[in-house]
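Write out this protein's structure.
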Amino acid sequence: MEQQNLFRVADRFSFEGEPVEIIPYGNGHINDTYRVTCRTDAGARRYILQRMNRTVFGRPEELMENLCGVTEWLKRKIAENGGDAQRETLSLVPLCDGNPYLKDADGEYWRAYLFIENATCYDLVEKDEDFYQSAVAFGRFQRLLADYPADTLHETIKNFHNTPDRLSKFEAALEADACGRAKEISEEIRFILERRALAHVLTDRLQDGTLPLRVTHNDTKLNNVMIDDQSGKAICVIDLDTVMPGLSLYDFGDSIRFGASTAAEDEQDLSKVSCSLHLLELYAKGYIEGCAGALTDAELDLLPMGAMVMTFECGIRFLTDYLEGDHYFKIHREGHNLDRARTQFRLVADMEEKLPQMKELVARLRFEV
């Protein structure tokens, strides 16, 4: 985007000082993110400026309503606990007129945050402690929002973790077979259809009241946690665009799906793919510690099942996209989404074999943490 336009947008926000530099920032794939440096009498002051992706988030007003409500709640809770509210959660910077976001003349939506200094987001786990710290952070996020009225939040992406709905979409794509690919994936189709009941495990328990509705982050990757450069401790959960009503098991399960796998998400050698019980234990310990009693017994009992269901759901999504012609997930080679689906299904199969050990591990941690 032209620098002149960026400075024009930046001038609408109540930044301290005069913006003197605006540069692209981070590795995000959804929104356009920039770091703004302002000159003040006391030195440089930095901010994050973002243009929201209207293609992914079709109702940005609702997204911002969620974000404003959740961040204000977090600030209050953090302050009550003696923490640093400007460092331990995102701090929105309003426009000069007081509004929390800008809709420009082109219909684009913009927002700004304080830049959190002396902290880093890591794309890959460099050491076990990083993975553990991310678990503590997301557990703490769950604890601080345990009393938030989750049913007042908007769904920023409809049916994002509705596994039965994902299964229905897969079956529709299979019936349509728009690209003639169904004949190539009979084994993967059979894998899904034999486990249709697995798709309903979590949603059925939400509907019957066994599991409580929670505020969930829904993108619990390591790079959505800021780690303090000096202490090495997780301080802040970021990227709150997908915060929605859901289940705590969605967040835990997706973290295990991605972070406790012994192979890359698109690994073609399936013999390398398994669920590391060591990494599962590390994350479960941190998550339970961070939650600090906020989870119910039913939620704790079903943590391993959450990992299995989220992995199954992701595999379904990859295979659906493969059947429909690879229009959602970016691909870098022929059959990329099929490879991704196969790794997820291999991980599910490994979790099925290890489920007794996974349950035993979590049951032990419940009383040790």
